[in-house]
Design a protein that fits this description.
By secondary structure, the protein is of the alpha+beta class. It has a domain of 77 residues: Glutaredoxin. 47% of the residues lie in helices and 14% in strands. A 4-stranded mixed β-sheet has the order 2-1-3-4, sandwiched between helices. Helix 1 links the parallel strand 1 and strand 2. Helix 1 packs parallel to helix 3 and helix 1 runs antiparallel to helix 4.
């Protein structure tokens, strides 16, 4: 099974995870330390300390968001459900942005009008 070396805080990792989900590809997530010098497992597997990195079933490593997305788009057909996955992800992303904004500044929340 493919392995994705990534972190939750990395925007490129998030976009690669999203694309893998859209394509319906199963993979194993490997969390990577924040500190580059501590990324021994990643370096051993890929020869690099950059994320995201995708290790294929044959052990070949594809590193960087652009290269990974190109590989995925070349080797996996997009299923009909991909658009639904994208739409759902966008709804959640917008909700998280609103919630994050409201947590920092409650006055940023929209005012809901109620009828009497």
């Amino acid at each position: 099974m493919m392995q994705l070396f990534q972190t939750e805080w990395c925007p490129s990792s998030r976009r690669v995870r999203q694309r893998l989900t859209e394509l319906g590809v199963d993979y194993v997530v490997r969390q990577v330390p924040v500190v580059r010098s501590a990324r021994h497992t990643l370096r051993d597997a890929t020869g690099s300390d950059g994320i995201p990195a995708l290790v294929l079933d044959d052990g070949t490593a594809v590193t960087g968001e652009v290269a990974i997305r190109a590989y995925l788009d070349e080797h996996f057909a997009e299923p009909r459900s991909a658009e639904e996955q994208r739409a759902k992800a966008e709804v959640i992303r917008r909700r998280e942005c609103r919630e994050g904004l409201s947590a920092r500044d409650p006055s940023a929340l929209p005012i809901l009008e109620t009828s009497r």
